[in-house]
Amino acid sequence: MSSPIAQNRRNFTRVTFDGATIIRQGQEQWPVTLVDLSLRGLLVEKPSHWDASTSETMEADIQIGEDITITMQVLWRHTENNQMGFECNLIDLDSIIHLRRLVELNLGDATLLERELSALGN
Predict the structure, then answer these.
(1) Where are the beta strands (DSSP E) in the chain?
(2) Residue 40: inside a domain, yes or no?
(3) Strands 21-25 and 13-16, how do they pair?
(4) What pTM was computed for the model?
(5) How would you write the pLDDT of the chain (122 residues) with one tens digit per residue?
(6) Does 79 fall in a domain?
(7) Cβ-count burial 49-70 (b if 16+ within 10 Å, e if not)
(8) CA 109 to chain centre
């Protein structure tokens, strides 16, 4: 299940979630272990066979329910301690609705969620 963890440097609450996650680039794809995600991006364990171009966009698919997937276009931002951070570059309306709900359930405070949504525009 999911639980809140410390906020990152950009003041976006990151939540842990155990959902099947795949990073795709072109015809290649890498199943990864999701560490956490936020309204701004995600952190994953680096797969041993990783050979993606970190200068090009990728797509992340995060399965959050039997038939619900959050899909976002992401940019690689860093690799540290065998974990890779990706920034969300583009997300469709259905995916942002599902991601917002997931974060909202973990925050337990609508005021905090609204503050984070406002910060996305900055």
Answers:
(1) 3-7, 13-16, 21-25, 28-32, 34-37, 41-45, 58-65, 68-80, 83-91
(2) yes
(3) unpaired
(4) 0.79
(5) 433 433 334 456 788 888 899 999 999 999 999 999 988 899 999 998 999 999 999 999 999 888 999 999 999 999 999 999 999 999 999 999 898 888 887 776 656 556 655 555 55
(6) yes
(7) eeebeeeeebbbbbbbeeeebb
(8) 20
| Locus of tokens 């993606």 | 52
Q: Which two tokens stand for residue 18?
A: 């155990």
Query: Token match 């990864």: residue?
Result: 32
Domain that holds residue 53: 3-111
CA 107 to chain centre: 16
Number of structural domains (the chain) is 1
